Amino acid sequence: MADKHILVIGGGIVGLSAAWYLVGRGAAVTVVERDRIAASASAGNAGIVAIGHRPLPWPGRSRQALSWLLDRSSPLYIPPRLDLSLLKWLWGFHRACRAERVAECMEIIGPLDRLSLRCWEEILAAIGVACGWQRAGWLDVYASAAGRRQAEQEAAVSRQFGVRTEQLDGDALRERDPAFSEQVHGAVLYPESCILDPGRFLTGLVGDLRAAGVTIREETAVQRFLRRDNRCSGAVLVGGEEIAADEVVLAACAWSNPLVCDAGVKLPMQAGKGYHLDLVAPDPAPRSGCVLVESSVAVTPMGDKLRLAGTLEFSGLNLHLHRRRVDMLRRAAAPYFRGVAEAREREAWCGLRPCTADGLPVIDRAPQLDGLFLATGHAKMGLTHGPGTGKLIAEWLLDGEPSLDLSLLRADRF
Fold this sequence. Notes:
Shape: globular
Largest sheet: 9 strands, mixed
CATH class: Alpha Beta
Structural class: alpha/beta
CATH architecture: 3-Layer(bba) Sandwich
Number of helices: 11
CATH superfamily: FAD/NAD(P)-binding domain
Oligomer: single chain
CATH topology: FAD/NAD(P)-binding domain
Number of domains: 1
Distance between the termini: 34 Å
């Protein structure tokens, strides 16, 4: 495979994982990333490899979202604007918020969870990067009776698909982790899950890839694909430079949409802006990653800092940081933890997640352009499923087919 050149568009966790598996089997690989890799959504996320996490569409969630839409301090915010593609996406999201659709999604999410966890451990064992990896589980934490009902309902669905869970009341939770306040009623523990500092991991992975001979070009944007006889033969960069390749992998996260359209594919995908607020770790600091059920805010210890991450904002393809959205993260987390209200701020950040209307990623050959493979649309599950997606794409390119049945993730399913 040394004579086969693969171009990977996107330097997030999916693209870099694909590059790692490809170069490990002898392919020549070039990765182009429009930003700095350390600034990507893969580096700025909550840092939870969340085994058993459900898809974004969920029964009743579209009705709940209606009460949030115009509230800038809510978990979901959509500034008023006339955007036909967004309206179509919202309708598709509403249609996906059905119990039978969730069950279909879990049929592929479960195997992808297992594969990705094995891939995470394989990559980490090979590159030896110190990124705070802990198999400490993640918690769905609640502070109300309604929150408990929601957490238990979602856990029941996960258990149907082989995911282990444990119920903890407030006292048991505080005995396990003294950082939680008396206002917390309890949590559901997903013990198979892991936490890490994603920025440190990506930095280590990039170093390993470069040492293995992968060409990585940051701050390099792609304008369109090269074509030869209806086959993708590379890409044209902004500025006119051409990069020829035998095969191309599109894993450009939220920035994939214009290129997906260039390939003749129509995906109902929106850029979902997420935020994080890094604080100096309070004393005591939480020991496990968790999601606060009532606000959907994730809280993750990362060495000497505590990351609060979350919110979903559909305001278009931009990186404008709304301070009100950042401040909401601290307000949401403060009642659950000792010391969070007073902790000193280290960094505020925002990034874009690629969100499909049905909550599942697209992992497929481009239906109308040979030589192009799509790996995008992971929404909040990019970190969890990134390594597994990278391995599946490498298998497809080098073996002719992936080791999982990916029919639910086809590009033409919409």
